[in-house]
Amino acid sequence: MNPALFTLIRLQYRGFMRRMTRGAESPRRAIFLVVGLVMILAWVGPGLITAVAVRHGHPEKLQASEHRFRIAAPVALLAICLLTIISSAGDKAIAFSPGEVDMLFPGPFTRRELLGYKLTKSALAAFLSALVMSLALMPYSTSWAACYIGVFFTLLFIQLFSTAGVLLGQALGQRAQTTLRRVVLFGAIGLVLLIARNYLATRGGMRALYEFRDSHLGRSVLAPFEPFGHAITAQNSTELAQSAGAAALIDLGLLAVVILLDANYVEAALAASRRRYAQIQRIRGGSLLGSIAKGNVTWRLPQPPWLKGAGPVAWRQATSAARSAKGLLLVLLVVAIAIGPLFASALHTANIAHELIAVIAWLTVLLSGLLKFDFRGDLDYIEQLKALPLAPRGLAVGQVVVPTVILTVAHVLLLGGVAAATRPHSSMLLVAACLALPFNALLITIENVIFLLFPTRPAATSPGDFQVIGRQAIQLVMKGFAVLIGLGMALGIAAPVFILMGGSLVAPTIIAWTVLGVEAVALIPVIAWAFGRFDPSIDTPV
Amino acid sequence: MHEQLPITNNLPTVIVQEFHKTYHETVAVTGLSFVILPGQILGLLGPNGAGKTTTMRAICGILPPTHGRLMVAGHDVTVDPVAAKRELAYVPDDPHLFDALTVWEHLEFTAAVYRVANFEPAAERLLEQFELIDKRDTVAQELSRGMRQKVAIICAYLHDPKAILLDEPLTGLDPRGIRTMKQSVRERAAAGAAVMVSSHLLALVEDLCTHLLIVHHGKRLFFGPVSEARTAFSEVDADASLEELFFRATEVSATPRMLTP
Predict the structure, then answer these.
(1) Interface size, chain A vs chain B, as Cβ–Cβ contacts under 8 Å
(2) B125 touching A, CB under 8 A?
(3) ipTM metric
C-alpha cells in the first residue's frame, strides 16, 4: 500500500483524538465530556463488576452465562448478516467520506490500494472498538484476552461480510441484487416465524433458541458463525486457539472473496459513498429515516383548514411522515396491534398493568426521538420557517401535532388491544389510553422546547465523541425530569380526587387529562418564544 | 399599533434605516441605510463576510436587528413581522426544500401559507416558464441542484410579493434557466416589485440591476444608481467596469461619496 495512505490514517487518528477532547477548556463542553465518559463507564462498569463478583462467588453462574452467550451469539451474527443483505447497512463498510472521495479517488492510487486503505482503517477501528466491547462482554467470558480476540475477529467478520455483500451486489447488477434481497428477506421472515412458533410453543425464549439451534436447519445455518461465540467464551488456551483460528480462517476467506470481487470496487465505493453521505446529511438535518419514495408521487394528503397557520404546517409534516417513515409507521402499527395477544396470557395470571404502563411511558420518552416530524427534524429549514408569514404560535401548534397524533394512535391501539385481551385488569389500561393524547402532547412540546433552546445535530458518526454522548445524556435527563414533573403535577391533583371518590377512576382521569393538556398548551407560547429567539446564523449547530 | 404607510409608486417598498447587527463581540452590520422603490432592482455587492446575507435575513425577519428600523411595504419587520413577511419573498443561497414533498406540493404549501386563493393557474404558468412542468409530481429529494433552485424561485413568485430578495439566484442554473431567471426578475420589477439581488457575479449585477449597494465590513460604501457608481469613487475611471469599481471601492484607501436616489 502507498505510504501516503498510512500517513493519512495516522493523521486521521490524530484528528480523531483531537476531536474527542475538543473545546474541553470551555466549562460547558468539559461537562459534556465528563458526562459522556461517565456514560461509557456506566455501560461497561456494571458488567465488569458483575463479572468479577460472579467469578469469585458463583462460577456456575458464569458457566450458565457463557452457555447462553454461545447459543445467542451465532443467531445475533446471522441477524446482522441478514440485515446487511436486506438493507443498505453494508454501505458503511465500503463508503468513503466526501474528503476521501475528492482527495483519494483522483489520486495516484490503485483500486487495491484504496481497498487496502479501507480495510486497514476497519481493522484499526476493530482493534480499538474491541477494547471497549470486550469489557462490556466480560460477564459472559472466562478470560478478557479470549473475549478481546473473539470480539476483534467478530468485528472484522461483520466488516468483511458487509464489504463482500456490497461488492457482490455490484457484480450482480441492480435487478439481480433486488431479487437476491427479496429472497433473503423472505428467508429471514420464514426463520423468524419458525423461531416465534418455537417461542410460543415452549413459552420460553432460550428454549426456543436451543430447539432451533439443535435442529438440522439451525446447525447448517449457524455453523459459520459458531467460532466467534466460542472464541469469546473460550474456557482455555486450546479452545481459544481452535475457535480463534477458525474465526480467523473465516475472516481470511471473506477477505479472499472481497479481493476476487474487487474489479468494480471503485464504482461500488463511489455509489455507496454518495448514498451514505446523503443519508448522513439527512440524519444530521434531523430526519432519522432518510428513505423517501423515488420518482413521481401520485397521492397527496388533503389540505386541512388554515387554523392560524397550523393547518399547512401540520399538513407538510404529515406528508413528510407518510412518505419518509412508512416502514417505521407500519412496524409501529403492527407492534401496537399484536402486542395485546402476546401479553394476554401474562396479564391473565398476574396484574402487571401498572408495570406495563410504566414501561410503555418510559419507552415512549426514550424513543420519541424517532418521530422527528417537528422542529427537531427541521434544523436546516429554520431559516425558511422564520421567513414564512405565520404567527409563531400557529407554527408551533402545526409542528407538534403530527408526532403527537402518531404516538397517540400507537398508544391507543396498544393499550386498547391489551385491555381488550385482559378484561379483568383492563381499567388502568383504559385510563392510560385516555391519557395518551395529553401525555404525548406534553412530551413532544417538552422535546421541542429543549431542542430550540439547546439545538443539536443527531450524531450520525464519531463513535468516540464523548461530548456528544454527554450532551445527549444530559438532554435525556432534562426531558425525563420535565416529563416527571408534568406527570407528577397531574397525578398529584388527581390522586386526592381518586381517594375522595371512593376509588372511581372517571373523575381523576378527567382531571389528569385536563392538567396534562393545560401543561402541554402552556408550552406552546414557550416554543413560539424559543423559535423566535433562534438565530439561524449562530444557533444552527455545524 | 403600528403606522402603515400607503404604498404608491413614490414610496419605498423596502426601507432600512440605521440597521445595526452585532453578535456578541462581532459587529456584522453597522449603520446601514437604504431604500428600494417599486420597480427598482438593487444589486447587493460586497466581499465575503461583508454583511450581505445578514442584511437580507434581517429584512426577511429571520434575524432580529440589534437596533434600526426595517420596513417592508409599510410594515415594520420587528413590530408586525407576519404582515411584513406576507409582502415579501426570500430565496436564500442554496435553498433547502422539503425532501418528501413534490414540486407541486411545495407550491400548494406556499399557496396555503400565503393564503393565495386559486393558485393553480399561476402555478402552472410558473412551472411552464421554468421548465418544471414534467417534474411537478417528483419529490424534491430527486431533483438536481438547479431544479431545486428553480422550485425555490417559483415558490417565491407564487404569491406576487411586493419585495423579492434573492441571494445568489443563478447558482446551479443552466444557461436557459439563467436567461429565464433574469427575464423573470425584469418582469417582476416592471410589474412594480422591489427586487434585491445579492451576487458575486458582477456581470449579472451590471446587466440586471438598476441600483447598487456596496457593503464592506458591515458598512455602506455606495448606494445609488448603477450609472452613478463610477463617478462616486475618485480613483475609478468613468469607463471602468463594475469589477474594477468593486475592487477599488472595497480597498481600504477608497474615498466613497454617498449618493441617494
Answers:
(1) 89
(2) no
(3) 0.77
